[in-house]
Write a structure and sequence with these properties.
There is one protein chain. The protein is of the alpha/beta class. Helix 2 packs antiparallel against helix 12, helix 9 crosses helix 10 and helix 16 packs parallel to helix 20. It contains 24 helices and ten strands. It starts with a helix and ends with a helix. Among the domains are: 253 residues, Rossmann fold; 65 residues, no CATH class. It is globular, with a radius of gyration of 25 Å.
């Protein structure tokens, strides 16, 4: 099995030069940016909203033990069964135990990134269950046997023609590449699965401590059907999704919609508070909520980076990240891609195995600037880099040590730094002569990008000339 860092490098080298793939992503991102910026103007004070959201989430994270206890108590009061999972293995075991007790054969799922995180689908299929994703994007990539490409847009990387071919190959029904026609094909298949399903599994966007309710945001209504039709419902939710008050949704629901999809508000926003109560027409007879830790408390213990637990999974940082736009979502090799994934994946899956993600960044700061809850993402990437080579956690390679030993005296000497700038200008002339040939020293870089030109005159040189 290829190491994550080596696999990332292989996939990035394959995807980055693919101009067709890049064009698809740039087109999608361009449309998103237009509507996102329009909707942000609907807020009376967008920066004020960000400040309030950041404070609310940070306060919730810092009092997580209290809020989780309140949340669980309120849910249990209405008949919900609460399960605490310390890690992925335990979460899978809990859910498989519920499926076995119900003799479940067909499971229908709405979008749940936590289920991707713990590889739940594979475990359920190994146990003999038919598992069907009900979110259209998730269903498409499931048919293609691919992981989701993006936190919000699982099938962003596919064209209508590719989706049509997938439906033709897998469902034997794809009359045109018209999105509405293809949606109707999926709808006919999925409606039958809802009726057949023994268990429905959902994720959660927020967990409200005050009322003991799960909040789910969607645009297709598939989560509602997943929750309403099967007799047993399971929600798998990360413990960091807690919000203190129901009133907090007045800010977070529109904020998630604006930054996630550029909508003023998503089509369906539903609260689930327990199994079907007396007098209610629909809903599950039995409701289970699995609260997943899976290293989140380890991140909580890190005072420097715990604000990363405030992420609302809107995907906005992915949308502005130049690295994500070039290497694509699948290259990250983990369910959480882009800047937020590069920050939290080393915590969730091991710093030494996943430290390369924190180096796959331009550190431009666009992610921090766009984050609706003001997570200090680009500084967290630097902190991960530092921690990866701290004496207690890891050692730099010989070439890294050599590079920094050579760089340190140059960086600490104004005279040497000035000399390297002057030499760089001559090197730039040489590079222009050999660019694209075997003699090009920067050919690994120039395969996919241009080398930035060195200024003809540095600021220090300009100041000296001006003062003379």
């Amino acid at each position: 099995m290829t190491a994550p860092a080596a696999q990332f490098t292989l996939d990035a080298r394959r995807v980055a030069p693919d101009t067709r793939h890049r064009g698809i992503i740039q087109t999608a991102m361009g449309k998103y940016e237009v509507v996102r910026d329009q909707r942000k103007l609907w807020f009376q004070d967008w920066q004020g909203a960000r400040n309030l959201a950041a404070r609310t989430k940070f306060a919730a994270v810092n009092q997580l033990d209290t809020h989780l206890a309140e949340f669980a108590k309120n849910l249990e009061a209405r008949g919900t069964k609460i399960h605490w999972a310390s890690n992925a293995e335990q979460a899978r075991s809990i859910i498989l135990g519920i499926l076995k007790a119900k003799n479940a054969k067909v499971v229908v799922k709405s979008k749940a990134m936590t289920s991707e995180e713990i590889h739940l689908n594979d475990a359920m299929e190994t146990a003999g269950c038919e598992v069907v994703e009900s979110d259209l994007g998730e269903y498409i990539v499931q048919l293609r046997q691919e992981p989701p490409y993006h936190l919000v847009f699982p099938a962003m990387h596919l064209t209508r023609g590719e989706i049509q071919k997938t439906f033709q190959d897998k469902l034997l029904d794809a009359p045109t590449d018209n999105p509405e026609d293809l949606t109707m094909v999926a709808r006919r298949v999925l409606r039958q699965k809802y009726i057949q399903a023994d268990v429905g599994i959902t994720g959660a966007n927020f967990a409200i401590a005050e009322t003991g309710m799960i909040s789910i945001t969607e645009n297709e209504g598939n989560a509602r059907l997943t929750a309403a039709l099967p007799k047993t419902m399971i929600t798998l939710v990360g413990i960091e999704k807690v919000l203190p008050r129901l009133a907090d949704l007045a800010l977070f629901l529109p904020m998630l919609a604006v930054m996630g999809t550029g909508q003023a508000l998503t089509c369906y926003n539903t609260l689930y508070g327990g199994p079907r109560q007396p007098g209610e027409a629909d809903g599950p007879e039995e409701y289970h909520v699995v609260l997943l830790d899976n290293q989140r408390t380890t991140l909580l213990a890190d005072a420097e980076q715990r604000d990363a637990l405030g992420c609302i999974r809107c995907g906005a940082c992915l949308n502005v990240c130049p690295i994500f736009r070039n290497v694509g979502g699948h290259t990250y090799g983990t369910v959480y891609g882009g800047p937020i994934g590069s920050v939290i994946t080393p915590h969730l899956r091991g710093l030494q195995d996943w430290k390369h993600l924190s180096f796959a960044s331009s550190l431009c700061g666009a992610c921090t600037e766009t984050c609706p809850v003001k997570i200090d993402l680009h500084h967290h990437l630097l902190q991960n880099r530092r921690n990866a080579f701290a004496p207690a956690t890891g050692k730099p390679s010989w070439w890294q040590k050599t590079a920094f030993k050579l760089f340190a005296p140059v960086a600490n000497s104004p005279a040497l730094w000035s000399l390297t700038t002057k030499l760089g200008r001559f090197g730039q002339i040489f590079h222009g002569l050999v660019k694209g040939s075997a003699l090009d020293p920067a050919q690994a870089w120039t395969k996919t990008r241009e080398v930035a030109p060195i200024a003809k005159q540095s600021f220090r040189e300009w100041m000296k000339e001006r003062e003379s």
